[in-house]
Design brief:
4 copies of one chain form a homotetramer. Chain A has one domain: Aldolase class I (TIM Barrel). Chain A is 39% helix and 16% strand. Chain A has 10 helices and 10 strands. Chain A has an 8-stranded parallel β-sheet with strand order 9-8-7-6-5-4-3-10. Chain A has a two-stranded antiparallel sheet with strand order 1-2. Chain A starts with a helix and ends with a helix. Chains in contact: A-B, A-C, A-D, B-C, B-D, C-D. At the C-D interface, α7, α9 and α10 of C face α7, α9 and α10 of D.
């Protein structure tokens, strides 16, 4: 593992995110329109977060669900990133999209459903971009680390892990956020790990406490879903924070900072 | 639900624990000897924690495992509590033990394996003692609340819930600590809920971060296992903090307090 | 393990059930009325099955659900058994009920929720009655065998195990019937094991194929729920076969017999 | 759904497999050598099974595990199929391999890890080959059917589903074979479904009873792993039947046929 990843979560020519900073990523589940995306991007910028997420190519369980704006979505992300000086995080579902993503995206996301798509992992190992690798919802912590090993051993050491919940019998939440993975990964890997409380819980009313719990458990950052009008979202509205809810999260993180920094 | 339980977690003639205080319970998995118990009890007292746990009647998966000191264990708990001015929390496995427990114990614990032992719940509903009800490791949050309802509807409103992990496919931990249950319980119940990171994780090396994460998620307290010599423990040594580890946990809790208090 | 249990599933002065016979138990989830119970008992008798199940003391998740007719239920079971020359299988939830059950019941059932109620197991180990021990819905196969060991090592070797499904993420069924437990138990234990497809699946429309699959996997018998009018059942109506459905099951078992016998 | 799939599982110019025939697929986990593959293929042919499975491109959890013989593996499969007049079933992990597979393979297998790789599903929907779609080990039955819908709605109606176990807390088996999925799929879909007891159980000692249970539950066929020398297998040796074990399975299936045929 490179020394780089021990102190620095991710690095760009104009931006370095250290572990002490935490990596904070926010945005809508899907890019739906210029207005929707820009409103969220503005909020992200105001918060001090520097990373905008938004799905353009959406892997959906149901073939008849909204599949994302695709190339048009990438263009909107690029425009929003330029307008608000943000970095873009978005999911890549096939290696044939790499040329398009290399030009527009700052961090390539591998979704939970593709964590064990080893063919994709092998191909992305050659991309000179940081990769956010989400834990599969039926993957053990060991399997997550072995999936990361496909990337690292293939040549890409800029891997950021993401805990996003595992599938259990509990139905009160969409998945069960397994925060124990955070301190365990810290013990056996040099890779940074962030937490996605939005997909894990599937309910915006508990995203804030679970996000904060994740940081206190030792996570190097967060990824949260934010939408200006969650009930109208084309995807995952139930788990999206409103802009107001997002500001509350940011305020709580700032309140918690003195504790986190001294750590 | 009584107004009492909204602000106060548990109340005795000489001690009231409010939600802002948090309820902190520590002690060995099993009472093994006077020396073992007194060393832990002294540490608990020094920490400012006021509740000593220790198993006397142990429900063990394997009939050939150590089954606890039973009545002798209760007597040792009583002696330690007197010596260090602590309250006793210990598990009751059958209603026929009630007379013995009523004289010696301050909080009756219902273990995870008995959460759905509704016959026991009905009988303990008549006991005028606070009850710590642990979530069954295959119980949903709703089922935990319905189990509590057996106690509350039966007349005992002094119920404290305890999240202690659920059984999942992950093998890196003994169970998966489901911290999402904490904010969910807060939304739909007036009952206090604490977190047991020791049984949930089964590994002492991540007990501290998970305990702190639990508090930040909103838990009203903690229950942790502490043993003066974990490798020699007759039960659950892998998950027990040493006395030194316990002092570190207490230090971290104190460091986190400014954040928790303002909340 | 006694030699007895290797060839014989269960034995009474007037009835011996060998492994080659299979142990077939049927009846309503709860005893509700004389008419309900007698109609089912008559069907059971006609089928050639000799064991009638019916809950009198019901462990219910919700304290406000129907809790069973209790002693009155036991009396109705006794009357039906006498009228149709059947043996009675019913659940015991507390050892204090033993005297009452010793007089009326032929096989004591320990329910899934009490499989790890080791205090109850220790007390029932002294009862001179066969025991049907259901697998807890979060219990591993090893834990089921260790629970049985509480009975066997305590002196009661007449133990019959019952696979009734485990809790998983799948929601199309109430639990996931784990038929792999059947051949595994055969490999490592001399105890007989039967299958309860009614509680496992929670849906009567697949009880017949799952019952037959259980027998072909090697099960020593079945326990199925039957109700004369499932939509009106006070408990678990969705998973109960009608009398007609029960006759179909019996016909299929008879059709499968040539295959099973030669085995 | 086409009328075709209701009576016929899969059809080739020179071979039609009807539901009453059952679709029986056997072979090694990985193609390792000509000798290994030809010995298995000969056994398959002798048994009356007509479909040979064997992995050429292997998705492995660990990047340092054997990844398959790849193109060389496909060539060996083709040679064995020609020699013994068998059809080939093998896994495709990326759409870019399609041209190569179209020339050599008879049924394209989508592995459990790729069931929710919707990008791959969309591309295979255009292939004019039958597809064997394995259930993801964390997928619900509904999600399996929705994944199939990606293929069917995309134009490929020759889809065969495969139950191969789901991930649960039980550790005695590799996964938990969920045979309930078989009758449930029958009720809500016209697609055929087969059972893979080898991957589900992960232990060859219970493959035979679970295979037979699957057929009695209503499965349209089986896929089993067979290896001439399981302890030397490069992949999944523990779950592979020996040639002798495979002959026993075939004998049992033949013994069960009178029951299955009349069904």
């Amino acid at each position: 593992m490179s020394v780089l990843t021990r102190d620095i979560i991710v690095q760009f020519p104009d931006l370095t995110v250290r572990r002490s900073d935490r990596l904070l990523i926010a945005g809508p589940c899907s890019v739906e329109s210029r207005d929707q995306l820009f409103r969220v991007a503005e909020s992200v910028r105001e918060s001090g977060f520097r990373f905008l997420r938004g799905g353009a190519f959406k892997p959906r369980t149901n073939p008849y669900s909204f599949q994302g704006l695709q190339e048009e979505g990438l263009k909107l992300l690029q425009a929003a990133a330029k307008e608000f000086d943000l970095k873009i995080v978005t999911e890549i579902v096939d290696a044939s999209h790499l040329p398009m993503f290399m030009d527009t995206v700052d961090i390539l996301q591998i979704g939970a459903r593709n964590m064990a798509n080893f063919h994709l992992l092998k191909q992305l190992a050659h991309a000179s971009k940081p990769i956010l690798l989400k834990r599969g919802f039926a993957a053990t912590i060991e399997e997550l680390l072995l999936a990361a090993e496909y990337l690292v051993s293939g040549g890409n050491q800029q891997v950021i892990l993401c805990e996003r919940g595992i599938r259990t019998f509990e139905t009160a939440t969409r998945a069960t956020l397994d925060l124990s993975s955070v301190p365990i990964v810290k013990k056996i890997s040099a890779l940074p790990i962030i937490v996605d409380p939005s997909h894990a819980t599937g309910r915006s009313d508990i995203v804030v406490p679970m996000a904060l719990a994740g940081l206190v458990a030792g996570a190097d950052g967060l990824m949260v879903e934010v939408h200006p009008n969650p009930p109208k979202a084309l995807c995952d509205g139930l788990q999206s924070l409103t802009l107001e809810g997002f500001r509350e999260l940011v305020a709580e993180i700032n309140r918690l900072k003195p504790y986190l920094i001294k750590k």
